Amino acid sequence: MVARRIRRPSGEIKIQVRGLNFYYGATQALFGIDMDVEARRVTALIGPSGCGKSTFLRTLDRMNDIVDGARVEGRVLIDGEDIYAPGTDVVRLRKRVGMVFQKSNPFPKSIFDNVAYGPRIHGVRNRRQLAEIVERSLVRAGLWDEVKDRLDANAMGLSGGQQQRLCIARALAVGPEILLMDEPASALDPRSTARVEELIGELRADYTIVIVTHNMQQAARVSDYTAFFYEGRLVEFGATEQIFTNPSKKQTEDYITGRFG
Ligand SMILES: Nc1ncnc2c1ncn2[C@@H]1O[C@H](COP(=O)(O)OP(=O)(O)OP(=O)(O)O)[C@@H](O)[C@H]1O
C-alpha cells in the first residue's frame, strides 16, 4: 500500500478553518472545509471556475458579510480567535487581514492619498507619520523608486502593473498580518506578473499569504502549500511540491494535468 503523503503545515498555524459551510441564500457554495494556514507561508487556492475559491478567500476576512442572504457555519480562527464570534470587531479584523483583488482598484486620488487612506481611517493624522508609512509601504511593494517623485500625481495615471503594486502598498499600509490575494496578476502582462510574483516571494517572510490563482504554473512558483477545491469541497491540501508532483487524488491530478477546468 502506498503511504499517504499529505503534508500538513508543520510550523506556526495562523488560520484554522473548521467545518466551514457557506451559503448564498439557499445555495450552498462551501461544504465542510477544514484547513490550516501556516504563518509566513504562501497558500495557493486552485480549482476550476465556480468551485468556491473566492468565496472561501472572502470568508477569511468576512468580506462575504456584505452579500445579501449570505450565511456561514463553522469556525475561522485567526491566532486562535474565532472571527465569526459575536462581538468581533470587524474593523480591527480588516486591519489584520488585507485584501488585494484581481482588478487593481486604486481610488481616483493621488498616489500618496491612496496609500495613506487606510492609516487615516485608523486615526493617523500626523503628516510626517503618514509620509513615513506611505514611503515604507511603497518600498515594500517595490514601487517607491518608480513613484517617489510624483506622489501627488493621480494614481489612475499609473500602468496596470504599477496600479496593482499600489494596491498592495495600500493593503500593507495598515500593517496587516495576513494578505489575501484574489488572482492578483491575472489582468497583468507577463512582465508585471513576474514582478508581482517576485513581490509575493519577498512579502512571504513577514506576511501569511493566501492567493487564489487560475494559473497552475503560478501556484507552483509562488506557493508553499496548495489547496485544490472542486464543487465547493476541499479535495486535497498539502505541500505544493507534493500536490504538483504526486497528488493523492485523481481529481487533483486530472486538474493539474489540464484534463478539465
Ligand atoms: N454573490 C453571489 N451570489 C450568489 N452566488 C454566488 C455569489 N458569488 C458566487 N456565487 C456562486 O458560488 C459558487 C462559487 O463561486 P466563487 O466565485 O467562489 O468560485 P471561484 O472558484 O472563485 O470561481 P472563479 O475561478 O470563476 O472566480 C459559484 O457557483 C458562484 O456562482
TrEMBL record:
Bilayer disposition of the protein: Peripheral membrane protein
Keyword hit for Cell membrane: yes
Keyword DNA repair among record annotations: no
Predominant location category: membrane
This protein's UniProt keywords: ATP-binding, Cell membrane, Membrane, Nucleotide-binding, Phosphate transport, Translocase, Transport
A Pfam family matched in the record: ABC_tran
GO molecular function: ATP binding; ATP hydrolysis activity; phosphate transmembrane transporter activity
Domain of life: Bacteria
One annotated GO biological process: phosphate ion transmembrane transport
Record domain ABC transporter: where: 15-256
Subcellular location: Cell inner membrane
GO cellular component annotations of the record: plasma membrane
Function: Part of the ABC transporter complex PstSACB involved in phosphate import. Responsible for energy coupling to the transport system.
Protein known as: Phosphate ABC transporter ATP-binding protein
